[in-house]
Design brief:
There is one protein chain. The protein has 10 helices and 14 strands. By secondary structure, it is α/β, with parallel strands linked by helices. The chain folds into 2 domains: 119 residues, Rossmann fold (3-Layer(aba) Sandwich); 135 residues, 3-Layer(aba) Sandwich (Rossmann fold). The strands form 4 sheets. The chain has a 4-stranded mixed beta sheet with strand order 2-1-10-9. Helix 1 packs across helix 2. The longest helix has 17 residues. It is globular and about 55 Å long. This is AMP-binding protein.
């Protein structure tokens, strides 16, 4: 509906919905050429970036399911996840090639996001939308959890689970194209599913947060003000650290409409100072596990 609106931004780089769609379509076409079909697993080894978002969407458009692999993981875990998934194809950023000894087919994301094959050049692939080959019961992604034994375990999630998550919850939220979200969490943590698709499926803007910024509450607070973030998703532990900066004097005009908690137990009494300073911001506690697709419970915190 809004092809020229900004879809995703990181630092000085951004992609509109039109650009994001074209780049992911071109890469999806290449994936189809390499044999990707419905339920085909494709591993993606990438830092949190615009490249990563394009890669994920391309895998889904091609009909496959993505297996996110964090480059910060130890080499042994990276190897285990790729081998255990059985993915015959790896999307990877060029500078991360030495992170894995994967011997299957590799495609470098950089070429399709910023190179000639991702732009409107003579040698670029067709950027039109592909005919869908997967349906609601096909796989969307496989996220590896620690498992009860400490051995990583792949959790298979279908498209209908993600649709249920975002559109059943529509009765609880009023997300829209005027919202700005942060992609704060690793794509190996399913909170990222909520963040990424919550922004893109409702036509909002996704601000991709650099890991160094995420680790520094003062820098993250500055980003929230600069980007005018309206939907913030946090684990309670990190939000308590951010809270110290938020409650102190700062020059930022925050526009946060919803703070959504997940991932661990919440102590509502610790939110009293925030609710006093920002009474119009909704504080919502949600809970779920990877197997149930991010969130299954909802409780607005009003009594603090």
């Amino acid at each position: 509906l809004y092809p020229d609106n900004v879809a995703a931004v990181m630092n000085e780089r951004q992609l509109t919905y039109r650009e994001l769609n074209a780049r992911s379509n071109r890469l999806a076409r290449k994936l189809r050429e390499t044999g990707v079909e419905a339920d085909q697993l494709v591993a993606i080894l990438a830092e949190r970036s615009l490249d990563m978002v394009v890669g994920i969407l391309a895998i889904l458009k091609a009909g496959g399911a993505y297996v996110p692999v964090d480059p910060d993981y130890p080499e042994e875990r990276i190897r285990f996840m790729i081998e255990d998934s059985g993915a015959p194809l790896l999307l990877i950023q060029k500078h991360l090639n030495e992170k894995t000894d994967f011997v299957g087919t590799r495609l470098e994301l950089d070429d399709f996001v910023w190179g000639d094959r991702g732009a409107d050049s003579e040698g670029a692939l067709d950027a039109s939308n592909l005919e869908p080959i997967s349906g609601s019961s096909n796989l969307a992604y496989v996220i590896y959890t620690s498992g009860t034994t400490g051995r990583p375990k792949g959790t298979l999630i279908e498209h209908k689970n993600v649709v249920r998550l975002l559109f059943n919850d529509k009765n609880l939220f009023d997300f829209g194209p005027s919202d700005t979200w942060t992609l704060f969490h690793s794509f190996c943590f399913d909170f990222s599913v909520w963040e990424m698709y919550g922004a893109l499926l409702y036509g909002g803007k996704l601000v991709i947060v650099q890991p160094l910024t995420a680790k520094n509450p003062a820098d993250f607070l500055a980003l929230l003000g600069r980007e005018q973030v309206t939907i913030l998703n946090q684990t309670p532990t990190y939000f308590y650290q951010l809270l110290r900066k938020v409650l102190a004097d700062h020059p930022y005009d925050l526009r946060i409409r919803n703070v959504i908690f997940g991932g661990e137990a919440l102590s509502p009494l610790l939110l009293k100072g925030f609710k006093t300073k920002y009474p119009e911001t909704k504080l919502i506690n949600m809970y779920g596990i990877t197997e149930t697709t991010v969130h299954v419970t909802y409780k607005e915190i009003t009594w603090v």
